[in-house]
Amino acid sequence: METFSLAALFSTASLLLIFLWRSLRLLRPGHASSDTQLQYALALRSAALYVLSGALPLIFPCEQAQLGWADCPSHWLIPTNLMRIFHYLPFWYAFLLTPYLGGLASAIHDAILGVGTGLAGASLINLLMPGGAGGPHYLPGEYFERAWLPLRYSTTGAFLFALCFTYGLFFSKLSVGKKQYALGLFSELLVPFMNPQTRTGFRAVCWDWDFSWNWNGAAMCGFWLVLLAVLLSVLTLGLKPWSFQSVERHTALWASANALAQVAEDTAGCLEYLMTILQKDHWKFQFHADSSNFYIRHLGLRRSRAEALLDLVAWEKGLLPSAKQENLLKVAAFLRQLRQLLRIQSEHMRYFGPSFAAGEHLAVEEFLETCSEGLGLVAQDLRQRADLSEETCAELQRLGNRGDKVLLAVVRGFAQEKRSSRHLAFVDKLRSWPKAFRSLSPDAPSAAKPAATPAASDWAERHWFALRNTTSWTLALLWSLYSRNYSCGCVVATSFIFSQTSGSSFDVNINRILGVGMGLAVGNFPALLILDGSTLGSSVCGSFMYFAVMFVMWSLAIFGYLATDSKYFRACLLWAALGGVQMLRHLPRFSRMDVELFMAILDNVLAIMVVFFVDMVFAYWQGSGASEQVKAAVTRCIQDVALLVATSKVKVDCDLGVETIATKPIEGQKPGTSGLRKKTKEFMEGTYLANFVQSVFNTLGEEGVPLAGGTLVVSGDGRFWNPEAIQIIIKMAFAAGVGRVWCGTGGLLSTPATSAVIRARGKGMEPFGGFICSASHNPGGINDDFGIKYNCENGGPAPEKVTNKMLEWTAKITELKTCSKIPDFDLSKPETYELPEGKVVEVFDCVEDHLKVLKQCFDFESIKKLIAMPEFSMTYDSMCGVQGPYARKIFEGELGAAAGTCKNAEPLPDFGGPSSAWHGHADPNLTYAVELVKDMGLTKEGNKADPGKPIPTFGAAADGDADRNMICGTQFFVSPSDSLAMIVANSNLIPQFKEGLKGCARSMPTSAALDLVAAKKGIPCFEVPTGWKFFGNLMDSGTSYFPGKPVYTPFICGEESFGTGADHVREKDGMWAVLAWLQILAKKTEQAGKVVSVEEVALEHWKEYGRNYYARYDYEGVDKAKAEEMFAAMEAKAGSLVGQEFGGMKMKINDMFEYTDPVDGSVSKKQGLRFIFEDNSRIIFRLSGTGVAGATVRLYLEKYEPPSGNLTQHQFEVVKPLAAIALELSQLATFTGREGPTVIT
């Protein structure tokens, strides 16, 4: 045994010396240079100091040799109460360890102020109730005469005080660290204060009963213990104050610079991988977008950690120049922007990448070289200087220009080769990289701090935070007092692991459990093996081995805690803190063997479970689960970041000189029902777009619109060439005198959102109008369609009298005006650009204003409850149009729908293009919404089909600019006409109409189902021409626009072309219609006590009002001349067919529809041919104004069935006889050569 002891002693000593030698080497400047080395050195130094603290009882033993520190009655040097609690030193010490000066200063600040706060609370409760529960047994009677409370100690009073103190502490704005230290010390003193068996000393007071200073009191000794931990943490840092290099290398500034340098290099590598995979010989390797996105997200996490270190730099003031911190913040923002670009490129790769596989070569090697070189320079500067030099910034400008030239050449080459819009969009997006390089300069503004949370919201959040954690702490206190016989372990542990957010994450709790288990196990088992009952326990060898185990255990745990990418760093911290305490308690000179290992483990594990259980209860109480709390936290984070960026302002110094350019009229610029639409290439050619925009500004000037200094909204649906068109319009707007331009992020705003922005953003009704770059549901791409329309100051489309003047100007325009020297603006993120002369371009979150308006219309909480029901499920298809960001924010964000509910939610320039299931035709109907129709168990004819998977309860889709909607139930399609009638019939269930409807309207081709509902409700119902602008006057009737006219709002209106809306905006609103249906289902479900389906709502409606069987046949791309000839022939017979029978039905009306506006008296002629029969069946013909190539002939068929009739037939079958009559009346096949329609809806 002796030989074994000597061998063990020699081995242990050798290992320990190696560790110590390594630690001493790392103390020397130049050796501990990397983060890993700093962390390793700190772990070893702290282990050495920890072991040294454990040796103190051997160095300064109790004067009574037979007693250990815990029982020592007096000592010549050390306060005896400090000796009794000395074994808790590792716990406080572990929480103070950090390798950086800024972190240490922050931790010390938190520790001193926190402990001081806890001490103040404990002293105050002692003044109120002197001596606590055991005070009467050992305090002089005269002391109680000085007590503040005449009733002396009261358990109820102590509880109330503790609860108030704890709630106030949690409610306060103190940092988490201060709260932990304050509550930890207060809890440690409170438990013995409430123990009636306390007989010795004042457990919670800083002075004796006669008010003399009690430096040896338990309370003050707790304070001395924390100060000792602070001293050890300072010594542990290991810097040499006389060496500037040593000080510099221990700053958070240098650590963040090194971290950002690594992120910069890895960002370059990630871009190189994405680009390399596209090359001719590389696409054979399958591209995994999800794996790439995971790596890209990891880049963001590492950058966020670097930014967290930068927050500590404020504690290092005076050591390093403040300009360095500002420059590092700029670099962090620069890398954040590049990471976002990587995510976008990765998503492009998911959809676009394989199109490069057919032997094509993407010549971007020089672009990659410039990016790699630039990021390499950034990394080099950060590592060498923790700063960016002016030379590097200048070189980045040069590299940015060089990279942009390379990409511009590639784009031009693709255009000449007539490559697809996929290729052009992919390469064009790469140009954001050089732009980001050029933006990184010393003159760039620093990131601003986010604005403070509104007081009311902040108060509510802090209240729930305080209430939740006070509840956890109270339960732990009750356990400590009554189940553990006044042992404070559970309540102290709860004080340090309270939850910062409702719904603690699984990983955090696993960390806590592992940490407690490791700490208590590793802290006790070595003593059982080495010290307890063996000959080694009384030998020098055994003691030395025990100290060696202490050293190794502590160094491993602390290194795991400090490691940058450690997943279990919380577990390692608790391992060190609790294990360190346990190992000290077992040392012989402490005489404090822990015989309650199981109960100690139980105390700490129970603390974890209490926190977790209370979190879950509060999460349920507040109406959401843990996952929803995480979503809410993420949403708040995104909002904070958005607010941060939105409040930042960038000064743009540029020449605002107005350039006049000669031009000449271009034929064919007549706006249709929804603006001007042509092929994209036609818009891109010459001054086509500029001619139309200038004509609009000229018209507005003639109409007296206040352009000078006014606000204009400019955005679009994200289709190809949208960004370029927006930049052109902005420059022309400033030339026209506009003072402020508003743009949605990414240049995106849905058509209804544009109307909401005009009407509700800022103070409301601020802009004089807005341009919407959209061709609605028409396909996007360089070979497809582009469009533009102008909306007026009420948020609605320009009326005919205005569009007619625009047309007049397009025919006589001779010059254009633009501020050509204004640079292009970055629209990718919220930003405010300040130009000379007070001009401003403001980029804002494209979703926020529309969402705000919708929240005023609906009860989101009731819809959220419906979506949360297990029997309910839904899907929403944005068809790669502009609705994607809105859908994700509203359905998956605000309403808590499951991730993946929103399909095709990434806006694409070609709406998915030819390779998508809908071939880039983002039109929500049975023909084009292929994925939704299949998911809902339907065919394109509306028949039932088996999709081979569970069918959602509710499904909907949007078109390219998000103003249209399609509604489906399980294997059930709702026609747009029926949808409009059903929403009006159930409008009493929608909060927006709680005061009742005053009017409704439909377009003339829309079925008369709405008329039946309006008649029963006794409200006016208007029949208007196709085009949302005709509804605008009715909604504005009786307002300042048309004073003295009847008021028709609240108001609902719609068109058969899948457009529905209300008076909250002046456009049809696809999102509003879907939320209206969800609101109706939610209220009916609440009333019925079970989920009510879409089909049940429809059947209930038809049983009351009857059913208008309805269908629309579209003949697209018809020769325009032939179509006009056919219409002329039918118009010539107007009135002559009345009284004649067709298919057994007698003709009642045969005319060309003409509309006289009841509000402004304007007359709209030639709005469609009507054939109406005496049984109210209808046949309508109309030439559409939304097409681009040729003409679109629309044929509308309607057959009414009363409530007593057959209400469950297929609508397409019912109207087939009407279709045969329509083809006979029109001779459509003869005129157009078409045998069948392109689309039936």
UniProtKB/TrEMBL annotation:
The chain crosses the membrane at residues 6-21, 42-60, 85-104, 111-129, 149-169, 181-197, 217-239, 510-531, 543-562, 597-621. Residues 669-815, 977-1092 form the Alpha-D-phosphohexomutase alpha/beta/alpha domain. Its EC number is 5.4.2.2. It holds the Pfam family PGM1_C_vert_fung. One of its GO terms (biological process) is carbohydrate metabolic process. It catalyses: alpha-D-glucose 1-phosphate = alpha-D-glucose 6-phosphate. SUPFAM superfamilies: Phosphoglucomutase, C-terminal domain (SSF55957), Phosphoglucomutase, first 3 domains (SSF53738). GO terms for molecular function: metal ion binding; phosphoglucomutase activity. Its cofactor is Mg(2+). Keywords: Isomerase, Magnesium, Membrane, Metal-binding, Phosphoprotein, Transmembrane, Transmembrane helix. It comes from the Eukaryota. GO terms for cellular component: cytosol. Belongs to the phosphohexose mutase family. This is phosphoglucomutase (alpha-D-glucose-1,6-bisphosphate-dependent). It comes from Effrenium voratum.
